[in-house]
Specification:
Elements (H helix, E strand, L loop, with lengths): L2 E4 L10 H15 L4 E4 L9 H9 L1 E9 L5 E9 L9 E5 L1 H4 L16 H12 L4 E5 L10 H6 L3 E3 L18 E3 L11 E5 L12 H5 L7 H22 L12 H13 L2 E3 L1 H8 L2 H4 L5 E4 L3 E2 L8 H12 L3 E5 L1 E2 L5 H5 L3 E4 L7 H4 L3 H16 L3
Parallel strand pairs: 1-2, 1-11, 5-6, 6-9, 9-10, 11-13, 12-14, 13-15
Antiparallel strand pairs: 3-4, 4-5, 7-8
Helix pairs in contact: 1-14
Amino acid sequence: MKNFIIIPDSFKGTMSSLEICNIMAESVKRFFCDANILCIPVADGGEGTVDAFLSAVGGTKIDINVCGPFNDVVPSFYGILSGAAKDGEKTAVIEMAACAGLPLAEGRLNPECSTTFGVGELIKSALDKGCSKIITGLGGSATNDGACGAASALGVRFFDKSGNTFVPTGGSLKDICRIDTSGIDPRLKDAQLISMCDIDNPLCGKTGAAYIFGPQKGASHPMVKRLDSGLKHLAEIVQHDMLLEDAAEIPGAGAAGGMGFGMKIFFGSKLQMGIETVLDTVQFDKLLKNADIVFSGEGKIDTQSLRGKVVIGIARRTKKAGVPLFAVVGDIGDNIESAYTEGVSAIFSINRVAIPFIEARRRAKTDLALTMDTIMRVINIR
């Protein structure tokens, strides 16, 4: 055993994916001192996505001031990757949370007033830098504007009943009477946009953006109803002015306050599971050709994981390549046996003393190291 790939998700509220990579790698080195270890930290599109990609493939972090969630100027950033480049292609990675995220709205949450305008500015900056592929993480947003803010920053114009242009927010989507996309940045036509989106919620309705995610952004029940009505109105205007049928029902349209919807209809972005985006970007299938074992993990593996989250997304690829995959997780839910048919070789929980999460999180790093040592002892048996 000489070639190991370590590719975990974070354990939410406990350890970052990079911390997990380091702990796992140390355990492998204790038992196979001459091992080749490739660490690929994974992020889901929210905070930490840019850093995870830069750690995995290398590149440069670009610092830039853009519009924050409430039209104030905030320091933000995105990444330009180096290791993922091919055929002269430059790839940028953006996390919308870096300029429209919940932490930036702390103490003043209001999805009726917040905007994604800064996200559009980040995309524009990436285009200015010559990036022809732009990956945007849709996670951790404080917004509910259907990406109208981002679209405005890139040249889309929204008109009210008086014929005046304005930048819609969640509370003013209802005021859109006409959309003009003729002035959109022409460079978007030749760029490849991918949006990391791990949910399949539609734009509107009881399972849509406002009802499911609005409350965590500070929306009261009456506000949720208003936000949902605004998104429905946006979808109707889009259908009329842009001749797009049923765009509101696209799986993932409801991600990040309707950001999935807007990225798709305004920019032609592909909505893709986060882990698939990561695996494609790092050319994981090629890396597997020399791998002996793959380690992955996430905070809890459960029936939600089986829909294609990190561990299962990786397992489907390792299965095709005939490489064993060990999943090391915080907790194991019921009814996850199909994970093994998907390609997972074995699942281990680091909760060694079966205690509640509030207690287990305090010892998670030590327990992860001890669990990895146990696994490595088994692998090392001759």
